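WARN no homologs supplied; continuing
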Amino acid sequence: MLQIQALEGIPEITAGDDLVAIIADAAGDTLRDGDIVVVTSKIVSKAEARTVQADDREDAITAETVRVVASRTSESGHVTRIVENRLGMISAAAGVDASNTPQGTVLLLPLDPDASARAIATGLRELLGARVGVIVSDTLGRAWREGQTDAAIGAAGVAVFEDLRGQTDAEGRLLVVTQPCVADEIASAAELVKGKAARRPVAIVRGRGDLVGDLDLPGARSIVRPAERDMFRLGTDEAYDQGYAAGVEEMWEERDTAG
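OK structure emitted
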C-alpha cells in the first residue's frame, strides 16, 4: 500500500540552513528503511543561497538559458520564454521562480539538484540510520496539456525509472518500450499532500521500498532526453522560421551555383 504524508513543522528556510537536521527534526522517528523523502526544490535553493533580486529576473533567466525553445509575446507585451536551462530541462523562464520567496526576490534552481539530493540522502541515512531515498521536485508545465505537475529534478538513492522492457503484460504480450519514470510519478504524488501554499515542502512516500537503493544510482539528470532523440526541440513558429530560412539559403546557393 502506498502512503504519502507531508511533514509538519518545517520552518521558513534561509541561506545556510541545515536541511538534513531540519527534515530529521520534523520527521522524528517516523522515517523507515525504504521511505522516499520528496523535497521541494525551493527550500533547497533557499538553503543554497540561490536567491537573486527580482529586478534581475530577466537577466537571471538569460544567464540560466542554454537554448531558447519558444518565445511568445502576449497582448499586454509580456514575453514568455520556454528554454532549455543549464540542467538540460525544458521549462518556462529557465525555472526562475517568484512564488514563495521573500518580497523583491526570485529563486534560481539548485546548481546541481542530484548532488543536493545525494547530500540530503547521505545526511539522513547517517543521522537517522534509515536507508531512505531522496527526490528533489519542481513544478513543470507539459507540452500539449494545460496545467502543471511536479517532477523530479534531483534524485539520490532511488531508481528514477522502473524498466519493464522484456516483461509481458497480463495478456502475455512482450513489453518493448514500457519504462515508467517513477521518480516523476512519486514527485507528482507527493505534491498532492504538500500543496503550493500550505508551507509543507517535504513529504514522505512509503510503500515503494523496492525503488530505494545505493546512493550511486543514476540521478534525475538521466531523465532528460538526449538531443539526438528529441523530436520536439523547437516551438512551432521557431521551427517554421528555421526551416524557411534554411530553404531560402539553399535557394540562393543553387542560384549562385547555376551562375
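DSSP finds six helices and ten strands in the chain.
OK
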